[in-house]
Write a structure and sequence with these properties.
It is an enzyme of class 6 (ligase). Its cofactor is Mg(2+). Residues 83-99 have a biased composition (Acidic residues). The chain is α+β, with helices and mostly antiparallel strands. Among the domains are: 1-118, 2-Layer Sandwich (first zn-finger domain of poly(adp-ribose) polymerase-1); 253-346, Orthogonal Bundle (DNA ligase i, domain 1), CATH 1.10.3260; 422-615, DNA ligase/mRNA capping enzyme (D-amino Acid Aminotransferase, Chain A, domain 1, 2-Layer Sandwich), CATH 3.30.470; 622-770, OB fold (Dihydrolipoamide Acetyltransferase, E2P); 817-881, no CATH class. Helices cover 29% and strands 20% of the residues. The strands form eight sheets. Strands 16, 17, 18, 19, 20, 21, 22 and 25 form an eight-stranded mixed β-sheet that branches. Strands 7, 8, 9, 10, 11 and 12 form a six-stranded mixed β-sheet that branches. The protein has a five-stranded mixed β-sheet with strand order 5-15-14-6-13, covered by helices on one side.
């Protein structure tokens, strides 16, 4: 369980020793026989001390099993003697109560008859006005109201009778009556922070996403009383999705620890050491329970409204003293688990492994899609959930109601960001043609920043890919050019990319040049908006219009302004040869890639229905830029990787300065088993990001100082790190060279620090990767080969398996070529699985070849191949040379 509160907490009748109800999910097991308690089965729990947190936990038993336990236990041990010994008794139906009493001695039935409890109303009859005042209710029974049957019934008849009883009781209810007061208590409980924590714990325990949705749906329909939800649905949804409507708190984990070390009067270093486990909320809970200065409340009584108000005020504070004082006001009302959950809300992560789709689908089948379009959570919940439109009779939503409500789609809302449509990786021409049967628009994939432009009259808003406002210095000047570019566009929403463009050459500048300080380095450059889609124009949403119509609207209404607002470069493609030609052209120019869109496709917010083509996606990833780097350090991970090294500092050796330089930090590529093994295999020294403890052999910028450094870098393993491209990053010391989107593709057990990529070699690789590529994607004859490349991106666990041996009967077809000094041509099939990147100098002994398609250096893993020129034909035919033979006269 992820939280200490996951175990059932003590109910309001804290003196009860037992609990009875029907199994809800079928996940709990019997304490005695260890078998699962089937959903709907009657069960009894012994309430025992909870070793994981405050309060008690329930040890569930089958009815027969607990009777066996009673027979064997000591006479002095508590057992069920009267019905008052059991919590949840009043929530059972009369039939369930009868079944329980039939298993116990007659004294149990007599104790039930003598109890002072309110009369149970018969179905479809008026409430009994002479009912006695009920005693204090148990944990779940205080959810009951005057307008419900005693406990949820499963029969259709009881549901109908219950509804008629609800309507009659509502007519007779008067303000100030015991019934209305009880209803107010239920509303209060449904809005309690305690119930919020319980639901989060329940969601976290469920592994399947459909199960998580069902748990939320049941609570939103029946509430804590298991009959009808009376809480604030908008507020519940808002807090269950803290990342969807983000507040900014200016509080990182270490700053939170600093604040609470003052509040608790505890040692900050001790708290920081606990923080290394990766969960700041758990750290705060532990030290809250240990604090003598500020002790936790035995039982939290916060409401959701109080917590929401607290968080709203906190988001407006920037000074540490103000933040400390603010926490000081709420902490006395919090149990340690309350405070833990508040920290989770501040960190925008409840640790329940659920996102907007799983929560919103519990409200309405169309809620998630509506939220993707409008991003207005409150509007979506009010219109499609149980807010302003919900049926106050408490009827369950039927299929008929659900389908009719689909007509209430949430429209695109101007000046509110729409979740952008995305693209999935395209690994071949064949895949592209299959995904786009109507033909496609092939657009240049610009290496800039995605921006969604909203214009309403003279007002402008700009949103990033993550729906955050774009920094003003990047977009402020567009307000002068957009009205000129769209003279007839009063209101519009554009999907676009912004780049810094060199005015002299009209070429885009590298990724990252849009930074405030970087931009100043390019005096003769301008920030340019490359527009590729329009999803709203003059009062009309274009989301459901095919892209060919949206493109026509752009062409008809947009006037390009050079270097400021232009249309993205695009070609309409219907044949695979045309797509291959454009791909070749793009990669030769050193551009990032292409985005492919079916001509008849509509704009679906958040969906990955476009395709993106990048060189590191092709040929099983063999065209990715990569280098063999040494593990120099590591950081602690977060979440389920907390307390273990899961992010690694990779670097190379500088033979001139005799120091090790940093190249990149990588956290992707290892499976869990390998990651666990690395904890003991890597010989690391803990320095806790302390600059004074960085060893002399490491040349490292302050922002890259890790939690651990290698004891001896020459004894560390070598990993092949691949990425989208080599980039310039000033935070790294390998001449500023780094790798974009790095991942571990192989553990190079065959290499050590001497044969790994060093700094001069890395500079050569960087230079080669930026040169214009001279290659073609079209072999002389197309072949269908779906076998994976050895260097394809995959989770690593061990060294790669031996390469497949080529069959002598089958020769790879001729393809791209490179002349040698003896006018001999070396061919290779670009889809062959026998090629992988070698990453170092030419070595004929290991049959390493320079290949102009897969620039810069690639290793052939099969038998050595030598071409022959039959009859002077230019089409080379490959022949085989035995393993171990040297390929002569190969030059780079």
């Amino acid at each position: 369980m992820s939280d200490n509160e996951n175990k059932d907490e003590p109910n309001p009748e804290d003196e009860k020793n037992f609990w009875v109800d029907r199994a809800k999910t079928g996940r709990a097991g019997c304490k005695k026989c260890k078998q699962k308690l089937e959903t709907g089965a009657l069960r009894i729990a012994k309430l025992a001390y909870n070793p994981f947190g405050a309060g008690k936990m329930k040890q569930w038993h089958h009815m027969d099993c607990i009777l066996e336990v009673f027979k064997k236990q000591r006479p002095t041990t508590a057992k069920i003697e009267t019905v008052d010994d059991m919590g949840g008794w009043d929530d059972l139906t009369p039939e369930d109560q009868e079944e329980v009493m039939s298993r116990f001695p007659e004294s149990l039935r007599e104790s039930n008859q003598n109890r002072d409890v309110p009369d149970r109303p018969e179905p479809s009859s008026k409430p009994n006005k002479k009912a006695k005042t009920p005693k204090k209710k148990s944990k779940d029974s205080d959810h009951d109201s005057q307008d419900e049957e005693p406990g949820p019934s499963t029969s259709k008849k009881s549901k109908v009778d219950s509804k008629s009883s609800v309507k009659k009781s509502k007519k007779e209810e008067k303000p100030g009556s015991p019934e209305s007061e009880r209803d107010a208590k239920l509303r209060e409980k449904d809005n309690s922070f305690r119930e919020f924590r319980k639901l989060c714990a329940e969601i976290a325990e469920i592994s399947s996403y459909t199960g998580k949705t069902e748990a939320v749906k049941e609570f939103f329909q029946k509430g804590s009383g298991k009959v009808k939800f009376r809480g604030d649905l908008v507020l519940w949804t808002k807090l269950l999705l803290p990342g969807a409507v983000k507040r900014i708190y200016n509080l990182q984990s270490k700053q939170i620890v600093k604040l609470f070390s003052r509040l608790f009067g505890t040692d900050q270093d001790a708290m920081l050491e606990s923080l290394e486990q990766g969960d700041v909320a758990e750290t705060i809970r532990i030290f809250h329970e240990q604090s003598r200065k500020m002790k936790p409340a035995k039982k939290g009584n916060l409401s959701l409204q109080q917590v929401d108000s607290f968080l709203e005020d906190l988001s407006k504070m920037t000074k540490e003293d103000d933040q400390v004082y603010h926490f000081e006001q709420i902490c006395p009302q919090c149990s340690s688990n309350d405070l833990k959950m508040i920290i989770r809300l501040i960190k925008h992560d409840l640790r329940i492994n659920s996102g907007p789709k799983h929560i919103l689908n519990a409200i309405h089948p169309d809620a998630y899609q509506a939220f993707q379009t409008s991003r207005d959570l409150e509007s979506v919940v009010r219109k499609l959930g149980l807010g302003e439109d919900h049926d106050t009779s408490g009827e369950e939503r039927t299929e008929e109601k659900s389908s009719s409500s689909k007509e209430r789609n949430i429209a695109l809302k101007l000046m509110t960001p729409v979740l952008p449509m995305l693209a999935e990786a395209c690994k071949s021409v064949e895949q592209a043609m299959k995904k786009c049967p109507h033909g496609m628009y092939s657009e240049i994939k610009y290496d800039g920043e995605r921006v969604q432009v909203h214009k309403q009259g003279n007002e402008f808003k700009y949103f990033s890919r993550s729906l955050k406002p774009v920094l003003d210095h990047k977009v402020r000047h567009f307000k002068d050019y957009l009205p000129k570019a769209f003279p007839h566009g009063k209101d519009l929403v554009l999907d676009s990319e912004i780049l810094l463009v060199d005015k002299a050459s009209d070429k885009p500048l590298p990724f990252g040049s849009l930074g405030k300080h970087k931009k100043d380095e390019f005096s003769d450059a301008s920030v340019c908006l490359f527009v590729f889609d329009c999803i709203y124009f003059n009062g009309e949403s274009l989301l459901d219009r095919p892209i060919r119509e949206r493109k026509n609207i752009l062409k008809e209404n947009m006037q390009e302004i050079r270097h400021h607002v232009v249309l993205s470069e695009m070609e309409e493609i219907h044949q695979p040869e045309d797509l291959e030609g454009m791909m070749t052209k793009v990669f030769r120019q050193g551009l990032e890639g292409l985005v492919l869109k079916d001509i008849e496709s509509i704009y679906k917010p958040g969906k990955r229905h476009w395709l993106k083509v990048k060189k590191d996606y092709l040929f099983g990833g063999s065209m990715a830029d990569s280098a063999d780097l040494v593990v120099l350090g590591a950081w602690y991970g977060t979440g389920n990787k907390g307390g273990m090294m899961s992010v690694f500092l990779m670097g190379c050796y500088d033979p001139d300065k005799k120091k090790w330089c940093t190249v990149t930090k990588v956290h992707g590529g290892h499976d869990d088993k390998t990651l666990e093994r690395l904890q003991t295999e890597l010989d690391m020294v803990k320095i806790s990001k302390d600059a004074t403890r960085v060893p002399d052999w490491l040349n490292c910028k302050k922002t890259m100082i890790p939690d651990f450094v290698a004891r001896d870098p020459k004894a560390q393993p070598v990993w092949e790190i691949a990425g989208a491209e080599f980039t310039q990053a000033e935070i790294h010391t390998a001449d500023g060279i780094s790798i974009r989107f790095p991942r571990v593709t192989r553990i190079r057990d065959d290499k050590d620090w001497k044969t790994a990529t060093n700094l001069p070699e890395l500079k050569t690789l960087f230079k080669k990767s930026k040169e214009t590529s001279d290659f073609t994607l079209k072999p002389n004859k197309r072949t269908k080969d779906t076998s994976p490349s050895p260097s394809s991106s995959r989770k690593t666990s061990e060294s790669p398996p031996p390469a497949k041996k080529a069959k002598k009967e089958e020769s790879p077809p001729p393809s791209a070529s490179r002349k040698t000094s003896e006018s001999r041509t070396l061919y290779h099939d670009p889809l062959s699985p026998l090629w992988s990147y070698q990453g170092s100098g030419l070595n004929p002994q290991s049959r390493t070849l320079y290949h102009d398609t897969l620039s810069p250096l690639w290793s052939y893993r099969g038998p050595a191949l030598l071409p022959q020129r039959p009859h002077g034909d230019d089409d080379g035919v490959l022949s085989y040379v035995p393993d171990g033979a040297v390929v002569p006269n190969i030059q780079t």
